[in-house]
Amino acid sequence: KEEAKHKDSQLSLTSFAFLLTTMDSSETQKKGKHDTRAKEQVSVVAAAALSSGEHSMEAQREQWEKMLSVVIKAIVVIRVCTCRSFDTHKVSYSVATGFVVDAKRGLILTNRHVVETGPVRADAIFQNHEEVTLHPLYRDPVHDFGFYRFDPSTVKYMTVSEIALAPENARVGIQVRVVGNDAGEKLSILSGTLARLDRPAPAYGVGEYNDFNTFYFQAASGTSGGSSGSPVLNIAGEAIALNAGGKRGAASSYYYPLDRVARALRILQGGFENVVPRGTMQAVFKHKPYDEVRRLGLQDAYESRVRSEFPDGEGMLVVHQVVPKGPADGHFQPGDILCEVNGKLTTTFLELETVLDQSVGKEVSLTFQRGGVSFTQSILVQDLHSITPSSYIEVGGAVLHALSYQQARNFSLPVGSVYVALCGYMLNRASIPKRSVIVKLHNSETPDLETFLEVFLSLADRRNVAAQFFLLETPQELHTTTVSIDRHWHSCNRFARDDKTGLFLKSPLPPAPEEIPKPVPVHFGDFSVDNVDLKAAVSKLHRSLVMVSFDIPVCIDGIHASSFLGTGLVVDTKVGLVVVDRNTVPGRFGDVTITFASTAIIWGKVIYAHPVYNFSVVKYDPSLLLDSDVESATLSDKPLKSGDSCCCIGLSKPNFYSPTHQLVGCTTRVTKVQEHFVNHLCPPRFRPWNCDVIHIDNKIPNEGAVLSDSDGNVQAFWASFSDQNSDLKNVQYALGVPVSQIVPTVKALSAGEQPRYHSLDIEFWPVSLAFARDHGLPDEYLVKVSQASAFRQILAVKSIAAGSRSSEFFKEGDLLLEIDGEYRTNFVELEQAIAGRSSISVKLCRNSEILELSKVPVIELDTVGTDRLVHFAGAVFQMPHHAVAQKLNELPPAIYSSRWFFGSPAHKYGLRAALWVIAVNDQPVENLDSLLKVVSAIPDNTFIRIKTRNLSSKRESVLTLKTDYHYWPTWEIKMADTDVGWELVSVEATTPSELTSSPVPAAAASAVAGSTSSAAEKATEDSK
Questions:
Q1: Could you confirm whether 227 is annotated as catalytic?
Q2: What's the predicted TM-score (pTM) here?
């Protein structure tokens, strides 16, 4: 019983009593007697032990409760925004735990993967819900611990406690409590028992942050997400370890020992400017048991010496990995057994690391055994901080920095290469993914970041250059691609960490050199096919088909992807006009390139996107084509009808084995020409409406095509349509767009005029006469309509765009009969009736009543589209585009949130896309100018109130958001008379009455990276 009371005993009183009462009596039975008296004595002792154990357990419970009530004031919830992808971390918002280890200086201990090595914004919430701003102070280059600091004077309503570090008190079998933010809970207290003190460091996955060259503790305690950084406490309220991770599917937690943490804390307590010395040989060691090191060749004499020196030891350190071109490379190799460091026997990570940290910039002597042979090497110890990146560059939206020791070790590569932490817009276009290394740019080797930057800064905007890269997983496979230099959508900046503030400070890089585009030769040559029915059409059209590529730096207007590819049709070689579908060029905002004959790529500009029909028009500079035989396609005035024969001629999809766009074609037949409907998409984006399409019976795989007669006269454009299935997954399919929908626009643009399109801004749908009768159409009109419509149909009002003047005259369900005295029963007749008109007279049927309306206004639809967007706090705002108006009954006086970025204030505080922003700090926000006026008066690091409304309902809510102009400054992109057609402008203001705009690209635009759709999967970590 006295032994059971001992502090370090691994048997509780209850367990001791249980053992006594369950003693096997087999031994006494063997003696031939059953000692009843002995059994009674055992029972008495057991009962006394149980009684005493209950009192002891109650005392322990009270002691735990008393301890927890004190230390809980030192434990905080940490909220972290990872503002840029960096090293092994990607842009995100996460929640973790930390605890105060120095209340006077405001020092909080947590995990390295919470402090992170890149740009972060963090705050801490104490138990009384006071919030303080955190500044990163130290993150260990290898081990999973780091420190934040805060201003203790900002905690006003409680006395902050601190938790003492006691690494020496960690022993197997002791009870511990893990207190922190577990699984998103504000506070959770989990119990456990230390089971191991020599567990290998946990592995979190290839390419992820992984600790090494250390032991971990293991306990049976099921911690989960959010508990990272929690203190592992003993009953005295001391932190004996730091919670770091756990095993999914098993109640096992992994704790980091605090020996090196205590050392770092002492150094930082001497002054925040102090550097914590960390040394490395760029080698990874594993602790192996004696039986294994004996098989590796450890001499018996050495083993006897080690066992004698360390009687409690169970093994020795063995080289597991040597990083190429590091200090240890060529000196020792995997499998070597470490015996001595500077002449002293060394068998633990702590002993080795202590020597290395004390020897930065000096040589150490290491003695190894390999296959039973001893050898000694002198190695220069490198500064571990020097191979942990503390700076990065942003170019074209990409984040690049030197390959870190972490990733170099993960993939056995030399440190310092040009590492792609975030591909961004520019590299995403070039299919260079994150976690890759760029080795060449513009035919120049780029072994390090400075060399890469020197080459990059010599290149003009929109210059296409060759690049080579490899993926970290497959460094032996080099990939070659073309990079289009982007200096017009994104700024170029260098960021370096300032440990005084914890911020990465920006230094703008020089502007791009000017360069005049040079003409390139284009020659399609002759092309023939064996199919006699296709011969003439192919011969005429193959010089008119081009490949159009469209990329969007930030998706607006609900656009579902960031990169598009499709076939274009050259319709005017003098002006340089190309027709393409709106699933290839969905709007005017973006970069467009045109490929001619798979030999020349030139830049274009989107000059028109039809508001109703599925086509856009791209303009290129004909003078950039040298000795070109490009031809304008002939647009036929003969419409296709059901049963007509035609030729389908287009360009094939490229693949790995055939990277060029080959001409493909077939003869086919029109199966039907009918109205086409696309339901409202989520989120709202362009969809064709009030249009007819053409179906054919024989289709070929292509990236777009044309339908022509046998002589090559184009009768329809075979276009790609974007839609969604019942699960809201994006789907696409191809249908024919009659050239009658395209010709008016092409004629206007060829004449140098801006096309105009008139509409009632009403979406109609055809219904049968039987349906119309059931909905109140008098019989006398059934006969008249049946005579006017070969299809025996009538147009019904399906929806009216919000804010349209037509809502004053029409209602949903109205049956359209006449326009200006003539029956109009299909879309073609409807368009002909209102083209060029300012008003019309209408006869319709509503609720069995015939109504005649006069002076019904005809609306000229906006053909420019979104011409401006504003970024604030990580969210992109615009005025509502037409697809939003079509979906709603009314538009509130507000701006539309179109996009948000991971790791931004919008991400952290819940400002999402497809929301109306009605007011900021109770000031109405009716347009983008009013937004800029309001936010220009708001200081940095200030909480604001934002009133929002759901897209399709009137439910309003208010959220708070803290500004961060350092990593997420305000900027706008607006349509301008430039080569690109747009201009990126930073917005800065220092007083409520003064708003300044500067055409210097804003740094935050570097975070732009497209869409979350499958077509742009490489950019999903950036925005939604």
A1: yes
A2: 0.88
